[in-house]
Design a protein that fits this description.
The chain is α/β, with parallel strands linked by helices and 302 residues long. It is 46% helix and 11% strand.
């Protein structure tokens, strides 16, 4: 290889290295821009950190684009109807990502978009953030008592399977269904909480009666069948003299029967930590958002 050939070869090598470096830098900057845009889009969901006097957003905002157009229309109509029915804003928000803790973000979205303005601060927001597969519930006003800590846990137990299967429309409809039930129970003075027992329906009573009769019949027929089986060894005799014993009375079996007992009971105090709910003691825990407003709620991953 000549001297000039060596120089040309080295120049080509440098150009190739610069070209590869340029492609890498462009790709890296593009990724940073996408990340920045993602967070900017999710963080720019309220105009200012002042609570407005009217609601600024629809009750459904699907920024993560999880729903079809028809699903959005149907869901938003149902959210509007449920909100008007119970005089409490029922809202859903989906984002690709969010800034800060998801609970604080959900509280701020509710406050700084004026969702408390319609019905004396009463409302609930269900939020999904897809980047880290997080969910959050934020409650305000009377809705804090509607959605107790235990009630939120039970609701998410039913929603999580839909979210894991990516059936978001199904999950949101389940949210609406359970919310309608919770508001109805609250309006009757019996919010869904630890120890709640639903009232018996007519079918429940009929079923209990039939089960009781079946159990009673079973208990009664078993000893009769057992006694009847013991009589199969007895044979009819032709004369009465055949039934007479000529050996006198012979006691071959001695049986002691315990007929009564006396038991003294003393009450023992225990701390069970609540029933079914485990660590849930009942009621709703609260916290304060950045605006100083009181909220209930919870959050987690799916």
């Amino acid at each position: 290889m000549t001297y000039n050939g060596t120089i040309i070869y080295m120049n080509k090598k440098r150009l190739l290295a610069r070209f590869i470096l340029t492609i890498f830098m462009v790709a890296f900057i593009g990724i940073l821009c996408l990340e920045t845009d993602s967070y900017a889009d999710s963080s720019d969901l309220w105009d200012s950190y002042n609570i407005p006097s009217s609601r600024q957003k629809p009750r459904l905002l699907d920024n993560a684009d999880l729903l079809s157009t028809d699903e959005e229309k149907a869901l938003e109509a149902n959210l509007d109807a449920l909100s008007q029915k119970w005089k409490s804003n029922v809202c859903i928000l989906t984002v690709d990502s969010h800034s800060g803790p998801i609970q604080a973000f959900a509280d701020d979205y509710f406050d700084y978009n004026g969702f408390g303005a319609d019905y004396n601060d009463s409302g609930v927001l269900f939020m999904l953030s897809m980047r880290d597969r997080e969910w959050a519930i934020s409650t305000s006003g009377s809705a804090i008592q509607v959605y107790t800590d235990y009630g939120q846990s039970e609701m998410m137990d039913q929603m999580i399977p839909y979210l894991k299967d990516r059936s978001y429309y199904g999950a949101f409809n389940k949210f609406l269904e359970i919310s309608d039930r919770y508001y109805d129970l609250y309006s009757k003075g019996t919010p869904f909480d630890v120890g709640y027992k639903p009232p018996l329906t007519r079918n429940d009573i009929i079923q209990m009666i039939l089960i009781s009769l079946a159990i009673g019949f079973g208990i009664a027929i078993i000893p009769i069948v057992v006694m009847a089986s013991h009589l199969k060894t007895v044979k009819r005799q032709l004369a009465a003299n055949d039934y007479r014993s000529h050996d006198g009375l012979v006691v071959s079996t001695h049986l002691d029967t315990f007929i009564r007992s006396s038991v003294t009971r003393h009450r023992r105090d225990t701390d069970s930590g609540g029933s079914r709910g485990g660590h849930y003691g009942g009621g709703s825990s609260t916290h304060h958002s950045s605006s100083g407003h009181s909220h209930g709620g919870s959050h987690g991953h799916f």
